[in-house]
Amino acid sequence: MTTFTAIRGDETPLIEVDAAKRLSKIDPMTYGGFTEHMGRCIYGGIYDPGNPLSDSNGFRKDVVDALRELDVPVIRYPGGNFCATYHWQDGIGPRDKRPSRPELAWLGTETNQFGTDEFMAWLSVLSEGLPDGKRVEPYMCLNMGTGTLDEALAWVEYCNGTRDTYYANLRRANGHPEPYRVKYWALGNEVWGPWQIEQMTAEDYAKKAFQWTKALRLLDPDIVLILCGQDGTASWDHTVLQACVPVVDMHSIHVYTAAGTSHIKNVTAPLAAERAIRITASLIELARIERNVPVTKPPTKICFDEWNVWDPERAPGDKGAEETYTLSDALAVAVWLNVFVRQSRYIGMANIAQTVNVISPLMTTKDGIVKQSTWWPLLLFSKYMRGWTVATHVRAGAYGGETQPVWLQGTLEDGAPWLDVSASVDEQGYVSLAVVNISETEDFDAEVKGAVGKDISVYTVNASQVTATNTEGKQEVSLAESTWDGEATYKFPKHSFTILRWKS
User: Fold this and answer.
1) Using CB atoms within 10 A of its CB, is residue 284 exposed (0-12), middle (13-18) or buried (19+)?
2) How crowded is residue 161: how many other Cβ atoms within 10 Å of its Cβ?
């Protein structure tokens, strides 16, 4: 958690880190991914048979190598909106027997050449070389649109069944004798939305979700079931939590941010997600109290399983949602990740949407990959912001102008700090201080209290202007590594993201 005091005039900014005060564990699942049958995420992204950059399974090796660098712990599949008309049995068995179907979420055609078994095989490739049996976990999203409970039960049986039963035997017949042990299952996706096939009221969804959880747990009592929330600030969240908090493990919320050409609105917008997390946590606590949930039942965590910077006008979903991200967007992603670290007490999982090509930090071409501006904060957080959130206090100037969403401005009593900060300490005692200077025009010399040593590692993401981008053949946003002697103040450059790292 980071507290903040606004300063005025010529006072020197101060960032104070107390590594001894470990506040809450940062769940490794915070750095999860998401793959949907949308645009070029699957076909041409992770699965590109015939391309010389692909392996014998058709999996892009350069994408696999990049995601291993991120140490992605979990990947959500197959949607997203796509799952509301997805019937998983279309995507198993011999490929030449699989039907092509009209795809209604993004108005395309789904060939079903990539399905459950291919997804699990891809995760196995991603997991190669991980220690002690660790793997990239699958997180499946059930079809609560055109799907049925029978179909959902069959999918869980296909993935996890160990007995001599039909769908477990079907998996074995398809060449996979061992169960996949899929632990995480979402009870639908955004079923509150008018764009959704089989949109439901909160009351109707809650009743359906409650009944599904009962049946799914009878089949496999070890699965983790995730409720479909809205954005954490809606009456929908209150209603479905009141009905279902006794029987679910996590509550899903989705937020995307973007603010067109306004840099300052763009980089402060993720603070709305911080407010959403706190509101959701309160709704969860209220529901657990009012429903008399036993104290022995583990805390109901937030699953922030879709988040990112996305401007649908700039990158329409039905046209593949291929964003070209700027330095401003990279700084917004860094603020997003600061939010998750600051609020780690409540986060059980978070999944950037999406993993490749579709509103993604990673883009493929026929000849290779492009690491967009947003790649760099994601990489630095996934490498260094591990362990525990530690107590941090910031004294700095603040932005007090208009925000997007508009309501955010009214919740920021002292404004949005020019220096957006989180800090962590890992198992080895290394402290990582993440600082986003959101100002487009001003460097800030700040005192960093608590920094130890004469050889502090410094990682900085920046460019000459906030509109800088990384595209094929052009890399304007980059990562610079240096050291700082810990003396005097540290200058955080304008429009930059910096991690300072030292041994406590």
Assistant:
1) buried
2) 21
Separation of alpha carbons 18 and 25, rounded Å: 15
- Residue 345, amino acid: R
Task: Say which CATH topology domain 2-22+390-503 has.
Answer: Immunoglobulin-like (2.60.40)
> What contacts 24+ positions apart, CB below 8 Å, involve 202-210?
202/235, 202/236, 202/239, 202/240, 203/239, 203/243, 205/144, 205/240, 206/239, 206/240, 206/242, 206/243, 206/244, 207/243, 208/144, 209/144, 209/240, 209/243, 209/244, 209/248, 210/243, 210/244, 210/247
| CATH code reported for the domain at 26-385 | 3.20.20.80
Q: Which one is catalytic: 36, 118, 137, 190?
A: 190
Catalytic entry in 16, 118, 137, 306: 306
pLDDT band at 198 (very low <50, low <70, confident <90, very high): very high
pLDDT digits (tens, 9 = 90+) for 312-370: 999 999 999 999 999 999 999 999 999 999 999 999 999 999 999 999 999 999 999 99
- Does residue 9 register a pLDDT over 80? no
Domain ranges across the chain: 2-22+390-503, 26-385
190 is catalytic: yes
State pLDDT tens for residues 14-31: 999 999 999 999 999 999
Return all residues near 240 (Cβ < 8 A) that are at least 6 apart: 202, 205, 206, 209, 227, 228, 229, 251
